[in-house]
Amino acid sequence: MVTPVVSISELSYGYGNSLPILNGLTLSFDPKEIIIITGPSGSGKTTLLTLMGALRSATVGQITVMGHDLMAANGQKKSLFKSFAPLKTALNLRKNIGFIFQNHNLIKSLTAQSNVEMALELDNVPPKDREKRAKTMLKRLGLGHHFLSYPAQLSGGQRQRVAIARALVRQPALILADEPTASLDFASATEVMACFKEAASLWGTTTIMVTHDQRLMPLVNRVIVLEDGIVVKDYRNDGALGR
Ligand SMILES: Nc1ncnc2c1ncn2[C@@H]1O[C@H](COP(=O)(O)OP(=O)(O)OP(=O)(O)O)[C@@H](O)[C@H]1O
Ligand SMILES: [Mg+2]
């Protein structure tokens, strides 16, 4: 049996004193899986991604990501704030996660290429290799003519693809993506899905993406539908992508 990349058990989460947003979720994701999480607005999809990415942390249930226990309660002694996972655990884990979030968070004063290269600086990749890897990834995403463009000179879909290149270039074990294809036409969205698939076969990357786009669902291994913080559907499509 393979060890899951993410393992969640009876996880509940609410913001402050509000009603719980996630209600006793149990789910696990395997290496190389490409998963879509979908469901109505407000059903807890982004909340779940931020918990898996150690960007916030829960106190009820269990969540383990790449062997790191992310429950705030279990790390309280080491944690500065009891609502966060132990800081060191969270920082170590985030290094192995490629985040693609709705607001692309590109640095406006840097070119597309520098935005992507910057991700590799964190890993101490030598400058020559950084340049090569950044250019290869931007080309792969159809941005071969935009290495030196600044975010303001790019369309919404192009900016989104720079953010995807920035996440993929570090060859992360896990990609967490929130509507990564929202401003893309179908052809570009399909190309992005092909990049996730390539990452799975080259580096064993698992991709968990939130999307409302029905057209992408046949292209992934597994689709999970969340409603009011519970899983109402969880089905596999293994024919589509192969494993
Ligand atoms: N920082 C926050 N503080 C308080 N409540 C929040 C916060 N973020 C989200 N919520 C609430 O939690 C619920 C779930 O939000 P979440 O962003 O996870 O939904 P979603 O499924 O991603 O929706 P969408 O499809 O619209 O992006 C919503 O009712 C939202 O109002
Ligand atoms: Mg959301």
Give your account of this protein's structure.
The chain has 243 residues and is of the alpha/beta class. The chain is built from seven helices and ten strands. The chain has a six-stranded mixed β-sheet, sandwiched between helices. β7 (174-178), α6 (186-203) and β8 (206-210) form a beta-alpha-beta unit. α3 packs across α4 (127-140). The model is unreliable at 75-80 (pLDDT under 50). The protein binds adenosine-5'-triphosphate and magnesium ion. Residues 15, 21, 41-47 line the site of adenosine-5'-triphosphate.
Task: Outline the fold blueprint.
Blueprint lengths: L5 E8 L8 E8 L4 E5 L6 H8 L7 E6 L2 E2 L17 H9 L1 E4 L11 H10 L5 H14 L15 H13 L5 E5 L7 H18 L2 E5 L11 E6 L2 E7 L1 H4 L2
Parallel strand pairs: 3-8, 3-9, 6-7, 7-8
Antiparallel strand pairs: 1-2, 1-4, 4-5, 9-10
Helix pairs in contact: 3-4, 3-5, 4-5
Bound molecules: adenosine-5'-triphosphate and magnesium ion.
Adenosine-5'-triphosphate binds next to helix 1.
Dominant shape: globular
- By secondary-structure content and strand pairing, the structural class works out as alpha/beta
Rounded to the nearest angstrom, the radius of gyration is 18 Å
Order of helices and strands: EEEHEEHEHHHEHEEEH
Integer average pLDDT: 89
Query: Beta fraction of the residues?
Result: 15-25%
* End-to-end CA span: 15 Å
List the uncertain runs: 75-80
The main pleated sheet reads as: 6 strands, mixed
SS element count, helices: 7
Number of strands: 10
For the biggest β-sheet, the strand order reads 6-7-8-3-9-10
Helix coverage percent of residues?
25-40%
Cofactors and ligands present? adenosine-5'-triphosphate, magnesium ion
